[in-house]
Amino acid sequence: MTDSGGAATVGRRRVPRLLARYLAAGLLLVLASVGGTIWLAQTSEYRYDEQASGSDLMRDEQVMDALTVWAGHHPDWNDVGSTLLVLGQETGRRIAVVGGDGTVIADTAPELPRPARATRLLDPLALRADPVTSELGLPDGIIGPFLLDGTQRAELARQADAVVTCLGEAVGETAVWATGRPVVSGDEDAPDCGRAALETPLPSEQTALDDLRARTNACLLAANAPLITSVELALSPSVAPAGLALRTVPSGDDTAEECLLQARSDQAKATTAPAVTLVLTDERGDARGPLDASPGSIARVAGFIVVLLALLSVAAALIIVPTLRSARRLEAAVERFSAGDRDARAELPAGDDLAGVGAAFDRMSSEVAGHEASRRRLLGDIAHELRSPLTNIRGWVEAADDGLGLDDAALRRLVLDEAGRMERITGDLQLLALAESGDLVLDLRRCDAAVVVRDLAEAYRVRTAASDVALHVQITGPLRLETDPARLRQILDNLLSNALRHTPAGGRIDLDAVVVDGTVRIAVVDTGEGIPAADLPRIFDRLWRGEPSRVRAGRSTGLGLSIARGLAEALGGRLTAHSTLGEGSRFEVSLPATEQHRRGASRAGE
User: Listing from the earlier edge strand, what are the strands of the sheet with 584-592?
Assistant: First the structure.
């Protein structure tokens, strides 16, 4: 009577009070929102803020420069997608790369349109004027076949470190070209310290230089100009160039420089991505929205937001303050619980606003205390199950090392057996965890469970005959249901395997299947030693196998029945067990039949 009165008090006092506060706060916010919307609609003038365009141009140039460098390191644009995503996040721009045939190669926002006015041509090999000297040249990122691999870079970096250490205070400047080559300069009177060796072109660089010489001479020959003898890396002894620098030997006139530049461009075509069209817009695809407002409109919106936040604070106080004390009390209980005090309870009064939450927490803490005890037992069981095969394997291997063990073939067989045992344990635990968490993938379809029962019975004929155990199968009518046939077979396989394991020679196993009251019931009945009444409630626990004398060594992980029950529940059914010590056991799985089959069975009963 006391509990009923308390529950009635909670229903009368808590629910209306909370409901009234929520309604009052909601009404206040609705009125403020409607009024503010009307006021803003009457006073605001929306327009696009053109000041953002200058910032967009700067970000677009950043994207163009970064993609030019990327193109200099790749012969095509196939793998540019990840780079576009990074650039899009850094610049806040939508970027799309479109090939010459109009095919989109990569796009950070493929769902947005591609306005023609937002497109720009990116030709990585287009000549650019130096901002200081106004001389034309290729972008710094276009390095052609001069790109060094990781091994070459590491070796040159080691040499450069040695040179810097040797020069000491005589070091001038250091730089690393886009090709990966380190450059070190020193004072005019500084010793060599290995700089000559560092500046000697690598074989791959020399090959590229020889190719440039041939291309340059072909251009000079066509221009009827003097030929050059070689092309060298332009490594100044006192100044470290910032990028790839080349010079002709002998130094030529403007014609030689132009031919060298043309030769570099032709040479880089094979290792540089081709020209493409870029689509550069903002994250909305340059669509204009209501927030592209004038400064006056923005100020009014900001003022309205401030007022709305103030009203929201009042509403929050109206709702929260009456329950804050109870929340703190509940929080204190949670903190004690998280600190390890499993006896922590909120014990809120029945009329409190958070009485339901407190009661739920109290129930949860009690259940968790019980679950933790079970978890500790489970961890101990798992450790025990895995320790035994590991100890065996270690003992056999150590004995083999001492020359006292078995021969290699026998040792491998024993180790594989124990490894298989551990694999079965871990695999069964994983399957059981998926079934219990609801993450198990099921292939549900309509089928006749009678087919599954018959096939499995035929598969067990040889095993039961070898164990001198009679197997009898009785199926009454079709057993139509919507289930996963493979998982159903796995359930019955575990039950039959368990029955065969505990049924002595000369015994009998019955496999019965029937539809009763719209439920498909499949029973596995054996005449084995049975299960003691004290053990029956624990037979579905993980890794529980009863008395050791009842288990044949190495043939059970103690998880078969747990898996069977977990799968039965995942399929929407249940698994029950009945047993009498010395007479045998009965395990029955029940699954709902299809609606049509239930109606048919009902008419047949009539």
Answer: 470-475, 508-516, 519-526, 584-592, 574-580
What residues contact 244, with CB distance under 8 A and at least 6 apart? 140, 143, 146, 177, 178, 179
Which pLDDT tens digit goes with each residue over 533-577? 888 888 887 666 565 444 444 455 567 788 888 888 888 999 999
Tell me the angle at which helices 485-501 and 560-570 cross, rounded to the nearest 10 degrees.
150
What is the enclosing helix (H) or strand (E) of 586? strand 584-592
- Residue 230 has phi, psi (to 5 degrees) of -165, 165
Report the pLDDT value the prediction gives residue 9, as an integer from 0 to 100. Answer: 40
Residue 139: which of 73, 54, 236, 75 has the closest Cα? 73
Report how far residue 99's alpha carbon sits from residue 80's, in angstroms, rounded to the nearest whole number.
12
pLDDT tens track for 589-606: 999 987 554 454 444 444
pTM above 0.85, yes or no: no
As a whole number of angstroms, the distance between CA 165 and CA 193 comes to: 9
CA distances from 90 to 56, 59, 60, 83 (A): 12, 9, 11, 11
Question: Which residue in this structure is represented by tokens 């395990």?
Answer: 587
- Give the span between the Cα atoms of 81 and 108, in whole angstroms: 8
From residue 472, how far is each of 244, 297, 457, 496, 512 by CA, in Å?
86, 85, 9, 12, 8
290-314 exposure pattern, b = at least 16 Cβ within 10 A, e = fewer: eebbeeebeebbeebeeeeeebeee
The average confidence (pLDDT) of the chain is 78
- Sequence letter at residue 254: D
| 486 three-state secondary structure | helix
**Tokens for 554?**
């190495």
Helix 355-401 vs helix 408-437: crossing angle, to nearest 10:
170
Residue 49 and residue 41: Cα distance in Å, rounded?
A: 19
Tell me the two tokens of residue 463: 């095993």
Which amino acid, residue 22?
Answer: Y
- CA gap 498, 506 in Å, rounded: 16
Whole-number Å distance between alpha carbons of 555 and 289: 70
pLDDT at 375: 62
Q: Is 408 left (phi over 0), alpha (psi -120 to 50) or beta?
A: alpha
154 versus 24: the higher-pLDDT residue is: 154
| Predicted local confidence at residue 94, as pLDDT | 86
pLDDT-derived band at 10 (thresholds 50, 70, 90) equals very low
Handedness of CA 75, 76, 78, 84 (dihedral sign): positive
Helix (H, G, I), strand (E, B) or coil at 515: strand
- In sequence order, which residues have a C-beta less than 8 Å from that of residue 243 and are 6 or more positions away? 140, 177, 178
Pick from 134, 132, 130, 104: nearest CA to 119: 104
Pairing status of strand 171-176 against strand 182-186: antiparallel
* Pairwise CA distance, residues 279 & 277, whole Å: 7
Place of tokens 């968790």: 368
Decide: helix, strand or coil at residue 577.
Answer: strand
